[in-house]
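Project outcomes to date are best conveyed with an example. Our students and postdoctoral researchers have been running inverse folding experiments weekly, and each run begins with a structure described purely in tokens. The record below, which covers 570 residues, was selected by the lab manager from last quarter's runs and is presented without edits.
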């Protein structure tokens, strides 16, 4: 491409090209100075967005990784290493995708733990086996199989909905819909606890919270092992979650706001200090007539299917699970892109409800109900809580979109990423192609003087330069893909299984070498995905290539601290 053509490429064109080639459309640019050679270069770091509207290639990449994690845990027939021995985060609940507030269930737990034990549903208790894998079934002719399940859980009706809008807006229960959406993850947590009790083994799941057309969240779950329909039905019916929070039925501060006096929120007119979160909980606990602030249950409808893998059904289900992960809750479903007045009005109405309901003990909205949020500080204003659950775009589903149990695949998301890098490395090495100098720019590479050799700084080039950086990324990616294709052709098909088998972490050829690939930094490894749906069996390998395609895996690219493997907000 000649310079004059390059110059005429607009940023819009570059964006389109980047999308078609699976290259990040809004990379963060950094400069790296090599103190030994005095040369400086520019390094684009993919944005890592998880939403398609923000960056389609990065979102696609994130989704492919999730699909791999999902597929790997679903039909396991051996026990994964226990999560605590792998150093996975020790979480009373389950490993979430860290997307946001693991909001303290503390407040409600504290109250529940004393007096109100009515939380335990009426379910038969069966002996609990230590296993996490499903049972094996044997056919009369001796064939063994180990089915898994695909389950969809829905919330109850808040009023009839037709064409994506309430039939009767006057009677539709917006408040309940809003509260159920805000606290959906709690109900799901409770469901898994109950299911394990009733099914008699340590049921593992990979679940995605997704919006229905009526905008209520529902939960698509891949479950390891088969559980009889009657048991599921019983558990769904018996599961409920109570929110033991102070009452937020009546707004107290509507037109004026409590003010911060340096240590508390007070009523400006009277000087009266608002009750603290702890005081409000104490009062709740001492009130014999207290009722939970909100009670949630699932709807009557649920959907389950047994899945035997490998099969086209199993593959389809994995893809289906990932379908909405990259969408915003309010994104138009299907093809109907044109604005729809009634639909917009419905979203507005639901959003108006969500805006002022409390999302967590620390939510600024407590001020509206005359209570100081937990751990308050200056600057809190009801209606302006920073949790995205209140946004019009998220409609209550602000936090965990992916809920994964701790012993699902026995790996962290970071380890799944590392697996994919190993696949590519194998293909390249076995074809005699030297991986790029991945160590080259690592922040822990030292010069002779003992100081870091590479110095990283921020970079904010003008738009034209930015566009050229993106174009360069595209070119580099194409070069890598060509090399990779050549490597595959000469070495035979890439064995995807080598990266997905239980031993991948310990048997990969890269392991034990001095390459930094041994411990890739998960947060920085986010390359783009250019996986095309047309070639699904290449998905793992191609996206693994993408881990390398745009640049080396660098343990610490000059960031002050590595980003966590997940938990991006975009
Ligand atoms: Zn991106
Ligand atoms: Zn909030």
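After processing, the design step wrote out the following sequence:
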């Amino acid at each position: 491409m000649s310079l004059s053509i390059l110059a005429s490429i607009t940023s819009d064109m570059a964006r389109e090209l980047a999308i078609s080639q699976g290259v990040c459309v809004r990379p963060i640019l950094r400069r790296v100075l090599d103190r030994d050679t005095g040369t400086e270069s520019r390094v684009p770091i993919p944005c890592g967005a998880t939403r398609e509207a923000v960056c389609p290639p990065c979102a696609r990449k994130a989704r492919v990784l999730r699909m791999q994690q999902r597929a790997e845990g679903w039909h396991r027939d051996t026990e994964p290493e226990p999560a605590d021995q792998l150093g996975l985060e020790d979480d009373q609940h389950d490993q979430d995708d860290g997307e946001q507030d693991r909001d303290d269930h503390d407040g409600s737990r504290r109250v529940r733990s004393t007096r109100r034990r009515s939380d335990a549903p009426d379910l038969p208790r069966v002996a609990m086996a230590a296993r996490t894998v499903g049972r094996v079934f044997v056919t009369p002719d001796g064939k063994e199989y180990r089915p898994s399940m695909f389950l969809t859980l829905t919330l109850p009706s808040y009023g009839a909905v037709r064409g994506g809008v309430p039939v009767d807006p006057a009677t539709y229960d917006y408040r309940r819909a809003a509260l159920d959406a805000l606290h959906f993850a709690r109900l799901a947590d409770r469901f898994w606890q109950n299911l394990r009790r009733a099914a008699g083994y340590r049921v593992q799941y990979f679940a995605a919270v997704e919006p229905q057309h009526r905008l209520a969240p529902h939960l698509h779950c891949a479950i390891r092992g088969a559980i009889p329909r009657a048991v599921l039905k019983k558990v769904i019916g018996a599961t409920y979650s109570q929110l033991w929070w102070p009452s937020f039925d009546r707004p107290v501060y509507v037109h004026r706001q409590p003010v911060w006096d340096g240590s508390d929120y007070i009523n400006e007119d009277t000087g009266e200090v608002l009750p603290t979160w702890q005081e409000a909980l104490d009062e709740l606990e001492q009130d014999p007539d207290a009722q939970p602030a909100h009670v949630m249950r699932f709807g009557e409808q649920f959907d389950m299917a047994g899945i035997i893998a490998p099969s086209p059904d199993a593959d389809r289900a994995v893809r289906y699970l990932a379908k909405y992960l990259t969408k915003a809750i309010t994104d138009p479903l299907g093809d109907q892109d044109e604005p729809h007045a009634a639909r917009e009005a419905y979203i507005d109405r639901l959003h108006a409800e969500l805006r002022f309901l409390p999302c967590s003990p620390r939510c600024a909205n407590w001020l509206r109900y005359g209570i100081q949020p937990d751990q308050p500080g200056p600057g809190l204003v009801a209606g302006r809580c920073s949790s995205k659950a209140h946004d019009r775009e998220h409609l209550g589903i602000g936090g965990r979109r992916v809920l994964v149990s701790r012993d699902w695949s026995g790996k962290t998301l970071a380890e799944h990423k590392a697996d994919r890098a190993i696949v590519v490395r194998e293909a390249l090495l076995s074809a005699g192609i030297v991986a790029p100098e991945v160590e080259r720019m690592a922040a822990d590479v030292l010069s002779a003087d003992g100081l870091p050799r590479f110095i990283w700084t921020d970079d904010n080039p003008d738009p034209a330069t930015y566009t050229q950086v993106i174009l360069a990324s595209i070119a580099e990616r194409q070069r890598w893909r060509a090399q990779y294709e050549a490597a595959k052709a000469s070495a035979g098909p890439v064995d995807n299984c080598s990266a997905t088998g239980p031993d991948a972490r310990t048997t990969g050829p890269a392991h034990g070498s001095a390459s930094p690939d041994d411990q890739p930094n998960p947060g920085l490894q986010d390359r783009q995905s250019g996986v095309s749906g047309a070639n699904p069996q290449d998905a793992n390998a191609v996206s693994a290539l993408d881990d390398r395609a745009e640049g080396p895996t660098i343990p610490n690219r000059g960031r002050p601290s590595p980003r966590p493997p997940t938990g991006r907000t975009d």
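The radius of gyration is 26 Å. Residues 431 and 491 are 6 Å apart (CA to CA). The training component of this project remains on track.
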